[in-house]
Amino acid sequence: MTSSSSAASQQPTDPRSVLGTHGSDARPRAPEFPRKVKVAVATSFPRCPEAPCGGVEAVSVSLVEALAKCEDLEVHVVTMDRACRAPTVEPWRGATVHRLPWTGRNVLTYAVGAGRRQMQAYLVQLRPDLVHAHDTYGLMIQGMQVPRVFTIHGFIHADTRIAGGWSAWPRSVLWRWAETACWAEQPHIISISPYVRERLHGIATGTIHDIENPVAEEFFRIPRRERGGVIFSAGSLCPRKNTLGLLEAFARLTANGVEAELRLAGAACDAGYERRVRHFVESRGLGDRVMLLGNISADRVREELAEASVFVLVSLEEGAPMGLAEAMAAGIPIVTSNRCGMPYMVRDGESGCLVDPCNPVDIARRLQDLLEGNALRTRMGEKARQFALDRFHPDHVARRTRDVYERAISNYHAARPSGAGREAARTC
């Protein structure tokens, strides 16, 4: 691909110099606890933190690293690992990572059965002052008598339904039952998007806190080396991410005579769907224009973002996709779906373009507008990065999360002497 006229290398400003009141110094600041508080973060945590698999792992890595900078927190990560044969403990960037064996086959039955018993028994021995669970780990800590915080990253029952298959409907029903029961029982919930908050209406009985997912600080420092016509997308190859819909739009884009290259990062979740993706690429003669990169490291993602002209994600169901947030932090204009959590992240016509994910003509048109509009790309990329600085910087997210911890601990101990239950539902 030839370089576009706006492809001059750009060294981004140090984010700490422009964060203002949302910014960071070396350590997040907050009123100190009377003593150091021991926090157990129950979540998916990769063996190689430099190569997280999926959004929850990426969030966990960034958040744990930022929380560990808080001088009044002692951060422990407790994670379940299929490759683990016995519990292990290892230090990582100021935190302590505990790995427990994952022995179950079915995620749901394990999370509410043997996995829950194993997790809770380990946490009882660890004796944290507070447990902060993410995603399916919320099911594992359900019912524990300890200050608890739960971050909801998405809606597994909806993802299951969209994934399809002969058992999708009954599995989706079971997941919905388990998820809604979990949401109703949690005393403190972190909502990563207004879309998540909307879905909790009438179900959650605890306090809901609005805090976006953190993006690793390195994404704010990516030096731009844009290559003209490069479209990048990060997300697994699956029906929910609408990979085939994106490929159909890209085929129309190239048929319009636009010189472009589509680079797709992400592992395939379903072998059958991957075969359909590869067949589409071959049958449309797109083999020299579509690159299937597979699951790549965070460093490699940043290299791809440095060269991309546009980031695209046209999922059918998302809460607050990490790939989109990382691209915004890098200052790249966005094309994304006009549904679920995406419209709360991207302002149509300002930081990117919202499209109907089921309309390949609409997607192709918006991609063409951005690829052919150098000034438009620059303006939207700057807006995207500023929004990310204000909302996704890890130290800002860690500071707000730490404040939730303080509130959760205070409320828990205030309620215990009188035997009061969880506080009435309210928002903050």
List the helices and strands in order. EHEEEHHEHEHHEHEEHEHEHEHEEHHHE
**Main sheet, how many strands, which sense, barrel?**
9 strands, mixed
Mean pLDDT: 90
Extended strand count: 15
Described by the principal axes of the CA atoms, the overall outline is globular
Query: Which architecture of the largest domain per CATH?
Result: 3-Layer(aba) Sandwich
Low-confidence stretches: 1-9, 16-30, 419-428
End-to-end C-alpha gap: 49 Å
Compute the CA-based radius of gyration: 22 Å
Task: Describe the fold and architecture.
With 428 residues, the chain is α/β, with parallel strands linked by helices. It folds into two domains: 31-214 and 393-427, Rossmann fold; 219-391, Rossmann fold. It has 14 helices and 15 strands. It has helices spanning 55-67, 107-112, 114-126, 137-140, 156-163, 168-185, 194-200, 243-255, 271-283, 298-307, 322-329, 360-372, 374-391, 394-415, and strands at 37-42, 73-81, 88-92, 95-101, 130-134, 148-152, 188-191, 207-210, 230-234, 261-265, 290-294, 310-313, 334-337, 352-355, 426-427. The chain has a nine-stranded mixed beta sheet with strand order 3-4-2-1-5-6-7-8-15, sandwiched between helices. Strands 11-10-9-12-13-14 form a six-stranded parallel beta sheet, with helices on both faces.
